[in-house]
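Supplementary Note 3. Input sequence used for the single-chain structure prediction.
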Amino acid sequence: MFSRLREDIASIKQRDPAARSSWEVLTCYPGLHAIVMHRWAGWCWARDLRWMGRFISHIGRVLTGIEIHPGATIGRRVFIDHGMGVVIGETAEVGDDCTIYQGVTLGGTSLSKGAKRHPTLARGVIIGAGAKVLGSFTVGEEAKIGSNAVVVKEVPAGATAVGNPARIIQKETQSPRDEAAARMFSAYGLTPPGDDPLSKALHGLIDNAATQEQQISQIIAALKAAGIACQSPEATEKFNPDQLNRLVE
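The predicted structure, written as discrete structure tokens, is reproduced below.
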């Protein structure tokens, strides 16, 4: 038990720049307290002491603001940062080295008792603050869920899910240095600016419209220079692609 506790403390100090000492982590980090109490509750649950497991889980929720069902499976070195409002359901599985921020829900969408109703997080998943991961599916290794995203379908390994409903951003090639930095600390599952696929699509449409408008102006000018009568289009507000691009950033 104490070796697991030392491992958890070392992991938190590695991933949280605000952690100054092992004593501070041990005494002041509710995420660590919730994980330790979940181990007690899970021990009872596995031995059919169901009421005792639920009661320990309830006490943990009162003390930490983090609700972990005693039937949930939590891996090694899981870091629940800040933690207030985190809810992890009965059949959820959280893999090793995952990071979960405040307000996260790993919830179920089925009422079938005994069935797998909650998501599975593979190793190294990061879930940003306020995100909701709902349903019985897998979030792949090293995937990221952006803050306030609502995820209702599988997320491939290494991908990022953002928005409501969540859109999947496939992992692009990064340098080994960037990948190592992302594994060490990726606050709230944030993605680099401009990675949102919807934003990329809108920027592409705006740029394409601007190009077409320029080509049409050149065609009209060439026709007039050749002496071909060409009715000018009705005057409209001048198209400003820069302004539109700023709106969808």
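The longest strand covers residues 105-107. The chain is about 40% helix and 15% strand.
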